[in-house]
């Protein structure tokens, strides 16, 4: 029973294909991206097939012949058409975003990304769109699976950080990518950043580290609330002077005993910082010195000036360290010494001097005139002083007055001439 069945199948196999081909049929007429009808595996000589383009494809323009025929030599007639991929067209372009992918035909995929500082509402990093057949379309067409470009919105930033001893201003902008806020330090504090101190909401939605407002070591001793700014003081007394460094102002004064002004620990970055201040007084037998106590490298002793009332500028380089401490100290014989306008510049002193050469007065540039004093006895003869403010004001007022008087004289002479010429006072020429 079994044997006979196998034999039967072998016979069928032998009888089918080779014999059939030898009797004359054409095989399957396969063409890329097209399907043929009727669907058979063999065709007799003279039989035809009609093609249609596969899904997502269309007949390339110019071709009309979609038929082929099984010829007498058992080959198919030539292919007279081309099926090409249909195009979805240029995808919808996103604002504040961009497209990756540059083929737009059936089967292609493009990807939408947001530009720097923008994001998709879904939180995804991108959106893919495929060129796919449109279901039920007639004639069959293709379209992007994501028809409308996704929306890219600005990355938001959290509320900016409040800082100690300062504040920020945001000029009413929304806290999102590109927004800029400005920080200000309270009086007596300053930042080591260049002004204006600002932060910008970056592409990751962060403001970065907030600035720091540190105690201002620049001290003119004027602020009642912070008489010695960020310095701690022993022995110096803050006193009013009519002939202070900038006219009527406060100075620090020492008359007896040790007086020391000490900085807190500071960080001074390379290449260093320049401490400068003005001082006056008789230093004979008195020591006015600046010491950098940590790292303990600099120790500058200042020499006396020409006279007690001459302000002299001291400039001392501080060595970089993350723990700099310095003090301005007077010791030795009792003597009146005053200091003013202590300033710390975060770059080395341009001229590394500690004091003026003996007998030469270094006059600070922006220093007002030291008009002759009621409070201080000057022993040295005044060396041809520069013009004082009252003198300059006097000259200016005089000059203005002269110009005014001259203008009046010219005007009146001119007016008088005109009246004599026309005889009609007060009527403009154009109305004559
Ligand atoms: C293609 O073949 C089909 C079916 O045989 C026929 O109806 C049609 O007219 C033919 N078309 C052309 C262009 O030869
Ligand atoms: C934003 O984040 C990326 C990735 O972490 C980083 O490479 C880039 O520097 C960041 N941008 C800013 C402004 O911090």
From TrEMBL:
Residues 113-223 form the G-protein coupled receptors family 2 profile domain. Residues 217-351 form the MAM domain. Residues 24-85, 86-154, 155-215 form the Sushi domain. The chain crosses the membrane at residues 391-413. PROSITE patterns: G_PROTEIN_RECEP_F2_3, MAM_2, SUSHI. Gene3D superfamilies: 2.60.120.200, Complement Module, domain 1. Disulfide bonds join 88-131. SMART domains: CCP, MAM. InterPro entries: Compl-Cell_Adhes-Reg (IPR050350), ConA-like_dom_sf (IPR013320), GPCR_2_extracellular_dom (IPR001879), MAM_dom (IPR000998), Sushi/SCR/CCP_sf (IPR035976), Sushi_SCR_CCP_dom (IPR000436). It comes from the Eukaryota. PANTHER family: COMPLEMENT COMPONENT-RELATED SUSHI DOMAIN-CONTAINING, SUSHI DOMAIN-CONTAINING PROTEIN. This is Uncharacterized protein. It comes from Clavelina lepadiformis. The lineage of its organism: Eukaryota, Metazoa, Chordata, Tunicata, Ascidiacea.
